[in-house]
TrEMBL record:
It comes from Spirosoma arboris. Specifically methylates the adenine in position 37 of tRNA(1)(Val) (anticodon cmo5UAC). It comes from the Bacteria. Pfam families: MTS. One of its GO terms (cellular component) is cytoplasm. It is an enzyme of class 2 (transferase). This is tRNA1(Val) (adenine(37)-N6)-methyltransferase. It catalyses: adenosine(37) in tRNA1(Val) + S-adenosyl-L-methionine = N(6)-methyladenosine(37) in tRNA1(Val) + S-adenosyl-L-homocysteine + H(+).
Length: 245
């Protein structure tokens, strides 16, 4: 169980647990003001609930194909203060179509699977969450193009190499990166994740970098305390969510 300031995520029945980079995506992505938000592959419901907390007027749909994750996300939403505005839907995004009168989405959030040729787990739910077999990048992008408003934004979290592959495919369908956040464990480490915001017809990309940790000078090597502490930038970004800030 992972407790935030305004909601709690139970995750004992889901393959993908709450992780720091997903929390950064939920806190950093532009979720708009009002309108409609779509969370593709919601898992525990984390991104949908973070969006609901940040955008207090939005109607949010959270789509999940895995039955166990769908059930747990539904329970997390029902137990939250945002239950009236968040709907959890058990469906493949490739088969998810909107009722025309409801309109398209203003914002789409995705923390997609990205492994391709890595060793498989004996757990089918883990494979579904981690590997692209059931949601290849090409099909994900096609769903975004079909479901997003012309002036909407799509925010996605991936490792650097996969970001390049996704960006190339997205640009072929008219989606261009308008903002990127490069995540590092600390300032000396290489980039391990990239959060990218796409829109139709974007012309300029704004790049930013966020280090999660920094060395704590008050705890030298051999001391009893941690040598690393969260950076001020990370604390500011997650202050509305993490209980420790």
């Amino acid at each position: 169980m992972f407790s935030f300031k305004q909601f709690t995520i139970r995750q004992d029945r889901t393959a993908m647990k709450v992780c720091t980079d997903a929390c950064v995506l939920g806190a950093y992505a532009d979720v708009g003001t009002g309108g409609r938000v779509l969370d593709i592959g919601t898992g525990t419901g984390l991104l949908a609930l973070m969006a609901a907390q940040r955008n207090t007027m939005a109607e949010i749909d959270a789509v999940e194909v895995d039955e166990a994750a769908f059930g747990q996300a539904s329970e997390n939403v029902i137990a939250s203060p945002f239950a009236e505005r968040v709907s959890v839907i058990h469906q493949r995004i490739q088969e998810f179509y909107l009722i025309p009168k409801e309109g398209l989405y203003d914002r789409i959030l995705t923390n997609p699977p990205f492994y391709t040729n890595n060793l498989r787990s004996p757990d089918a739910a883990v494979n579904r969450a981690l590997h692209t077999d059931e949601l290849p990048f090409s099909e994900l992008i096609e769903a975004v193009v079909r479901l997003m408003k012309p002036d909407g934004q799509w925010w996605v979290l991936l490792p650097p190499y996969e970001t390049e592959k996704l960006t190339e495919l997205a640009q072929n369908l008219g989606l261009k990166p308008v903002k990127r956040l490069f995540l590092k464990h600390n300032r000396q480490k290489p980039i391990f994740r990239v959060i990218t915001g796409f829109s139709f017809g974007g012309s300029q990309t704004i790049d930013e970098t966020l280090a999660i940790y920094e060395t704590n000078p008050q705890n030298p090597p051999g001391g009893n305390g941690s040598r690393e502490t969260y950076t001020a930038e990370f604390r500011a970004l997650l202050r509305d969510f993490y209980l420790i800030f």
